[in-house]
Write a structure and sequence with these properties.
Chain B: Keywords: Signal. Chain B: This is ABC transporter substrate-binding protein. Chain B: Belongs to the leucine-binding protein family. The structure holds two protein chains of two kinds. In chain A, 75% of the residues lie in helices and 3% in strands. Chain A is mainly α. The chains are: A mainly alpha, B alpha/beta. At the A-B interface, helix 1, strand 1, strand 2, helix 5 and helix 9 of A face helix 3, strand 7, helix 8, helix 9 and helix 10 of B.
């Protein structure tokens, strides 16, 4: 029974990590059709923002939950204004540009901080379930992931910004005719996606090794989750993260971490073969 | 070379009709000549007081870049010292270094370049076992002497290669019984999923069984695994007395953090053959690393005069250098062993230096006295065990003059000098 509880928590943790990893990417890709190959590096920037903030004496909760998303969100705005805005509708060009950006960011951070591992201490301790121990931080990640999805839903469904954003994504010309400025909406959306990714990076900092190349370890999983999730940002991310997190964590537990990874990717390939439009393209069409 | 080109073109012109083919041929030759020119000119100019080139292939960036930086720094320090003392055979030494960027393809590419184009006298390089296996055959083929100065899983038997780092018989064999005696007989092994981790895990299993212990499970992790949640649950379920870790690289550092975050650090101790080799102790909090045991051929914290002199010189010359581990110390010693051998042989010729090294060449370095073992081309050297305390290593055991017994059991270069295999332990 204790074991079941701990394992459930592991699976939830796997799912929450995926949600945090892929939501920012899903916002940018799902809404703007920009394939952001610098996603992993946005994550890395978020982690570094937290490390630097904590090192300079700022409270870790503020560092993770405020400084990281705000900082990476601002970076996202700058990136969007400088070159992404020139590349809308040009899929391959935007991939190349963001790939270059990712190399640049890795080089820049290596130059500034060196390629040694940085880290911040985990702010919460462990707790006991019967004979087992688990980390409170795991529970915290699950809560944040749920709040993130809920908050994004409220933002898109219940605010004027959400309405305008959704309208612009569906038909930018019509939105422009109604007096909306699509470039501004694009800018804000890209910034929002980057900020969510920054938040994920900040939250990863206490449980991962923070180094300039850390993005590479996450990007494949983030992309495959977003592609499998399909066009709907929230339902797509949530369902694909749920499936993949469950499969990865339970397969890792039942077999080995190597097989767990293999299982995840084989399952993803089969899923994308069967549902080329992603899960939400088939089952939750038109959802957010 | 420019003279050569003029000859060719005039010959073409003199024949009266410059056909398209002769023109193309001469241009191609000229272009080839131009590209080759720097190498040829340098070769022709090779005089008696020209520098001797020392090759270095070490990752300075990418996944294992942190490990590579102090290794190159140690080479730079060694070269500076030798040059200040008058060089080798009256010639100064010069470093030819390529950053292999944690990329195996670059390793093979630069290995060819350093052997064929730069024509270095010796190469020090390779960090991961994967990179060593990629470049070892290249240096065998192009007859370039090769020093591998990293601790590794053992078993490389190749007369062209000198391995100066520690092998499992020197470290794991000490670490395992220490941990079993201190904490108990049931062990759980975690290792990185490539040749180093796979083979080191086998040695951990062997020494555990030899010491009456029981291996509950051996789990391997691809280098990009970052979430250890399910593994941590599995370990708790298995209830081992101690966890052995041969996890490698930045992503795997996450294990120690997640382990500590779950509050397990106090209840199940960890012993590792890789932890603390880079700058883990500086990066992690004392609460996350205290009590972890490791076994290496060198620790920066060693207080022998040779050790403090070495670390002092490195830190003065390169402020901000990452942790100076066995990697840097063995690179420094490997370099000096080559220098001593070249002096003894009165030559930088590969075979003459090799024979000088095989004569039982010794060097007193920061780790103590290091001696080349003729049979295996490995080193007889000191080994140490240490426990992490307050972000520093505190030495808890020292084992003088350990022979590379694992490799010696399978490799005999006196009997089979043509062997070039890496032997793998079978359980």
């Amino acid at each position: 029974m204790d074991l079941a509880a701990v394992l459930t928590l592991d699976v939830l943790n796997g799912i929450a990590s995926l949600i945090l990893l892929c939501t920012g990417l899903a916002v940018i890709f799902g809404m703007m059709k920009i394939i952001n190959l610098a996603h992993g590096e946005f994550l890395m920037l978020g982690a570094y923002a937290t490390v630097v903030a904590v090192d300079s004496g700022i409270n870790i909760w503020i560092a993770m939950l405020v400084i990281s998303p705000v900082f990476v969100g601002l970076v996202g705005l700058v990136v969007e204004r400088t070159f992404i805005r020139l590349l809308y509708g040009r899929l391959v060009d935007s991939m190349l540009a963001t790939w270059g950006l990712s190399l640049f960011l890795v080089g820049l951070i290596t130059t500034i901080f060196g390629n040694t591992i940085k880290s911040v201490p985990s702010p919460l301790g462990g707790f006991t379930i019967g004979a087992y121990r688990s980390s409170q931080y795991t529970v915290f990640l699950v809560v944040v992931a749920a709040l993130l999805l809920g908050g994004l839903w409220l933002l898109m469904r219940r605010t004027r910004f959400g309405l305008i954003a959704r309208a612009t994504m569906q038909n930018p010309d019509m939105a422009a005719a109604m007096g909306v400025s699509p470039p501004k909406v694009y800018m804000a959306t890209f910034g929002l996606g980057a900020a969510i990714t920054g938040l994920a990076g900040g939250l990863l900092a206490p449980v991962a090794g923070v180094l300039p190349t850390m993005g590479a370890a996450y990007i494949a999983k983030a992309f495959i989750t977003v592609v499998a999730g399909g066009a709907s940002v929230i339902t797509g991310s949530a369902t694909a993260s749920g499936l993949f997190g469950f499969i990865n964590q339970s397969a890792s537990y039942l077999t080995t971490p190597v097989i767990g990874e293999v299982f995840l990717f084989v399952f993803a390939i089969v899923l994308i073969r069967l549902l080329p439009q992603g899960i939400s393209g088939r089952f939750f069409r038109g959802s957010l | 070379m420019s003279k050569n080109r003029t000859d060719l073109t005039t010959r073409g012109a003199a024949s009266g009709s410059v056909t398209r083919r002769t023109f193309l041929r001469s241009t191609a030759l000229a272009a080839g000549g131009l590209i080759a020119a720097p190498a040829i000119m340098r070769h022709a100019a090779l005089g008696s007081d020209d520098p001797i080139l020392i090759g270095s292939l070490h990752d300075q960036s990418g996944a294992v870049g942190t490990s590579g930086v102090p290794m190159v720094r140690a080479l730079e320090l060694g070269i500076e010292e030798v040059n200040a003392a008058g060089g080798v055979l009256g010639r100064p030494l010069k470093l030819v270094h390529y950053d292999t960027q944690s990329n195996i393809q670059l390793y093979t590419q630069y290995a060819q370049q350093i052997a064929l184009k730069d024509k270095v006298a010796v190469v020090h390089g390779g960090i991961t076992s994967a990179s060593r296996e990629a470049i070892r055959p290249v240096f065998g083929r192009y007859k370039t002497l090769y020093f591998y100065n990293t601790l590794y899983e053992g078993g490389v038997c190749d007369r062209n290669v000198f391995s100066t780092g520690t092998t499992p018989a020197q470290t794991v064999e000490k670490l395992v019984p220490y941990a079993l005696e201190r904490w108990g007989k049931k062990v759980y092994i975690l290792a990185a999923d490539y040749n180093y981790g796979q083979i080191t895990a086998k040695w951990m299993e062997k020494y555990t069984k030899d010491n009456g212990g029981e291996v509950l499970s051996v789990d391997f992790f691809p280098l990009d695994v970052t979430n250890f949640g399910s593994t941590i649950s599995k370990i708790q379920q298995a209830k081992p007395d101690v966890v052995f870790s041969a996890l490698v690289g930045g992503n795997h550092t996450a294990f120690y953090r997640q382990w500590a975050a779950a509050g397990l650090k106090g209840s199940i101790p960890i012993a590792s053959t890789t932890f603390g080799l880079v700058n883990e102790l500086a990066a992690l909090e004392a609460s996350e690393s205290d009590g972890i045991i490791s076994g290496y051929g060198y620790y920066e914290e060693l207080t022998t005069p040779a050790s403090t002199k070495f670390t002092g010189a490195l830190k003065e010359k390169f402020p901000g250098i990452p942790y100076i581990s066995e990697l840097a110390a063995c690179t420094y010693e490997g370099f000096h062993l080559w220098v001593e051998a070249a002096k003894k042989a009165q030559s930088i010729d590969r075979m003459k230096v090799t024979e000088a090294l095989e004569s039982g060449m010794s060097f007193d370095g920061p780790t103590g006295t290091v001696t080349i073992d003729h049979k295996t081309h490995h080193t007889v050297r000191n080994a140490f065990l240490a426990e992490a305390k307050e972000k520093l290593w505190s030495v808890v055991g020292s084992y003088p003059d350990q022979p590379p017994a694992d490799t010696a059991a399978v490799c005999d270069l006196i009997a089979n000098p043509r062997d070039t295999k890496q032997y793998v332990i079978s359980l």
